[in-house]
Amino acid sequence: METLSRGSLRSDGIFLIYNGLQVFIWVGSQVDPSYLQQFFQISQFRDLNLTLTEEHMFADTTNNPLLATVYSIINNVRYQGLPFANLQILAEGHQVSERIVRSMMMLDANYFLYAKDY
To answer: In what order do the strands lie in the sheet with 86-91?
Structure first.
């Protein structure tokens, strides 16, 4: 676990964020297409569906060990906190996603370097 700062969210990564009320999957704009395919069944970041339901995203955990592991981690986080925490997908550069992430951030020395007016 790490304190959330804008500097800790890299464009080439997918991050799981939990704020005590909700679980988020933040997707960077430069994620390797193979991970996009495994997680979201898409080949390009621009095709990311932010309204994808949890049921659809994790429908095939039997044939996808990475997805099964992520789903297990999400359920463990829920078990330790709020069992029915919603899952929401966030995308780097998306206006609403950036506002949500910014609202959860701890101020750090790099905050103003990464703050953007979306």
So the answer is: 14-18, 22-27, 86-91
Burial (CB count <10 Å: 0-12, 13-18, 19+), residue 107: exposed
Sign of dihedral through CA atoms 26, 37, 56, 52? positive
Alpha-carbon dihedral 64, 6, 74, 82, rounded to 10 degrees: -160
Identify any residues that bridge with 14 across adjacent strands, giving them in sequence order: 27
Domains identified in the chain and CATH numbers: 6-114 (3.40.20.10)
Looking only at the bridges linking them, the beta strands covering 86-91 and 14-18 are: unpaired
**Could you list the pLDDT tens digit for every one of the 118 residues in the chain?**
566 666 778 899 999 988 888 999 999 999 999 999 999 999 999 999 999 999 999 998 889 999 999 999 999 988 888 788 899 999 999 999 988 888 887 654 554 544 444 4
